[in-house]
Amino acid sequence: MARVETSSDRPYHLVIFGASGFTGQFVVEEVARTVSEDPKGNTKWAVAGRSRQKLEKVLEQAAGVLNKPNLRTQVDIIVADVAEPDSLAAMCKQAVIVLNCVGPYRFFGEPVVKACVENGAHHIDISGEPQFLESMQLNYNSQAAEKGVYIIGSCGFDSIPADMGVIYTRDQFKGTLTALESFLTVSFGPDGGHIHDGTWQSAIYGLADRSNLRGLRKKFNHKPLPSVGSKLKHRGALFYSNEIQQYAIPFMGSDPAVVKRTQRFLAEEHRATPVQYGAYAGVGGVGNLIKMMFAAMIFWFLVKFSFGRNLLIKYPEFFSYGFFSKAGPTRKQMEGSSFQFSFYGQGYTEDQDPSQGKPNAKIRTLVQGPECGYVATPIAMVQAALTILYEPAALPKRGGVYTPGAAFAKTTLVDRLNKHGIRFSVI
Ligand SMILES: NC(=O)c1ccc[n+]([C@@H]2O[C@H](COP(=O)([O-])OP(=O)(O)OC[C@H]3O[C@@H](n4cnc5c(N)ncnc54)[C@H](OP(=O)(O)O)[C@@H]3O)[C@@H](O)[C@H]2O)c1
């Protein structure tokens, strides 16, 4: 496959911005591991961030972990700060693709997107913040299209497994898939698991600002998506799921919003039948359920007030039973953790009209992978970036602001993920 190439003016295929962050350090390791698979070995990349010293430390650490002592000297460092637009422009001019790990994106994301659009670099992020993702679509889609730049959000655990899982299931279904539910379960090893504070903060600010999201969505002036086939019933706020044999709640992350945007794009641009989607997450047995409800009540109360948000931000461990922490998970905890999305779909066989009667066929698929935040996310982000690099002809014809499903529906991203530990299968 013909790769998008660098030039003397734009010397790096990939620039990891925010490489010194908790997630950024694992993206650095994933890039270092993955580019060594390139038979020609000439993928050029650099790390970027606001502190040269921290970036040097990250490279040193990655060199030790991966046993690649040359990493420190072979990988260039770019100093760039979100608060200094000239430094962002200089960074973006040097990159074919910026892998942006600087969050919360609601505070730091827009200047980076703007600099990428203005300076011709594609942009991948791992945001799980619908307000940020959708406001970038509203404000930069036309400009990005004019410049031929792809701005592709939510390319981490939020929301590649769900969004590409829906597309994979649709592609495997013999006929017209009209409705799909996913059930997420997460497992931890004997050492348990944590999520880093960066994601906790993104969630707090995002939930505090949900009312603005409704206003933002009105500005798109979208017509409702046509619902084809039997209407998918929404489950309750809490129910026992026979599918995953445990209690489940509606999934609170960005997946449903991202999938909906993808389905709208595919329906409007490719006349595809939109798939109705319901996303749920398992919470375990009764003991877990009581703990979770208690934590959720306190969280929902505190997140409404500025003093409450400050408390939540100061004491993540206390308010999340230790699930979110400023230290993040250890490597041992990450090794013991995994996720599974079980998809249950229904639709109509090729000889049946989806506008008539009840669905007459079902499908079940799985998307499984390693620890969500710092193993699966770097894999998904890096494979998304390599897909832009190696498969430009399979991307949407015009640049623009896209969801992963909209950007990658016609690429081999699912195959790439399968080869790197995020496995899609029909069961
Ligand atoms: N999609 C997913 O599933 C997923 C998974 C993991 C993380 N995430 C998201 O990724 C984001 C980062 O999370 P994290 O836990 O890695 O957070 P983090 O450890 O706090 O990292 C934040 C990064 O942003 C950098 N930064 C902050 N202000 C900056 C500025 N003005 N200019 C340049 N760089 C700046 C920090 O640089 P310094 O090191 O210099 O402070 C650091 O590199 C969050 O939004 C999180 O929600 C998403």
UniProtKB/TrEMBL annotation:
Domain Saccharopine dehydrogenase NADP binding, residue spans: 15-152
Signal peptide annotation: none
GO terms classed as biological process: glycolipid biosynthetic process
InterPro entries: NAD(P)-bd_dom_sf (IPR036291), Saccharopine_DH-like_oxidrdct (IPR051276), Sacchrp_dh_NADP-bd (IPR005097)
Cited Pfam families: Sacchrp_dh_NADP
Family: Belongs to the saccharopine dehydrogenase family.
Protein's UniProt name: Saccharopine dehydrogenase-like oxidoreductase
Organism expressing this protein natively: Austrofundulus limnaeus (Annual killifish)
